[in-house]
Amino acid sequence: MTDQKLEALRNRIKEYESAVVAFSGGVDSTFLLMVAVQELGKRVLAVTLDTDLIPRREVQEAQRIAKDLGADHMIITAEPLKIPEVRGNSSERCYYCKHHLFGTLYELACNKGYHAVLDGANQDDQGDYRPGMRAAQEIGVYSPLLEEGITKEEIRQYSYDAGLSTWNKSEAACLASRIPYGEEITVEKLKMIEDAEGFLNSLIDEQVRVRWHRDVARIETAVDAFGTILEHRQEIIENLKKIGFSYVTLDLMGYRKGSLNEVL
Questions:
Q1: Is position 85 within any domain?
Q2: Are 201 and 156 members of one domain?
Q3: Do residues 27 and 124 share a domain?
Q4: Which tens digit of pLDDT belongs to each residue from 212-239?
Q5: Same structural domain for residues 118 and 72?
Q6: HSE-CB of 50 using CA atoms within 13 angstroms
Q7: Are 129 and 264 in contact (CB under 8 A)?
Q8: 156 in the same domain as 249
């Protein structure tokens, strides 16, 4: 990231005067929160929305990171699965979910007197199918990293320079993104996915996705990790069957961000 981009980001954040930051504890929102705290101090509130769509470990990690950054932090429970359009899992699921979640943050900001709601969308997020970004714009959420043209690579580099532990953290996505469009999203399915990915993460230090295809668990991970997967093949089969899958497969195409969008 150039010094000019970083300075522009700092100036933009100062203009908000006070802000609620949608905080997941991921690479982008951690970097955004760090800069916001540096510029606005106690006029920043980090808010993590705890839902069935997010792994428990991510919520706990967000709590730890916010504390390390010295940020005021709240965890709020939200229930997007109560929304029929989210539970029904159409291709517009993310729009309805984000509309609900960002609406919750916007209402909180208004009630507590914060001037803006910020999220960590960046320049690279425009390259995938993300209807949730439309919901953010409709509600009035600001995306300063995107607005200043800051890329994921730049965020990682600056995070590394700043000593943030998240600089090389794998990208996270809501658990619903593992379920094909049209398949109803349930707490039981999400729990199967979370448990399966948690087990696989204990074996390999790579990005892992377990795509839910009814009885089939389709594992996506880096091609370089295939050897480790095959080395632990029997162990993986046994554990994923205990979780509830009947069949376990390895996707030979490897990990792809948003691979279930390929059918759209």
A1: yes
A2: no
A3: yes
A4: 999 999 999 999 999 999 999 999 999 9
A5: yes
A6: 12
A7: yes
A8: no
User: DSSP E strands: which ranges in the chain?
Assistant: 19-22, 44-50, 72-77, 116-118, 208-213, 216-221, 247-250
Using the CB atoms, write b or e for 121-135: b if 16+ within 10 Å.
bbbbbeeeebbbbeb
Candidates 58, 171, 160, 157; CA nearest to 125 is 171
Domain that includes residue 231, residue range: 175-263
Rounded CA-CA distance 26/62 in Å is: 8
In tens, the pLDDT along 177-212 reads: 999 999 999 999 999 999 999 999 999 988 999 999
Contacts of 45 (CB under 8 A, 6+ apart): 19, 20, 21, 71, 72, 73, 74, 112, 114
Question: Which residue, 98, 32, 96, is CA-closest to 65?
Answer: 32
On whether both 100 and 224 belong to a single domain, the answer is no
Confidence of residue 2 (pLDDT cuts 50, 70, 90): low
C-alpha span between 104 and 210 (Å, rounded): 29
Can you give the pLDDT at residue 264? Answer: 57
- In angstroms, the CA 63 to CA 57 distance is 10
Q: List, edge to edge, every strand of the sheet that includes 247-250.
A: 208-213, 216-221, 247-250
pTM listed for this prediction: 0.91
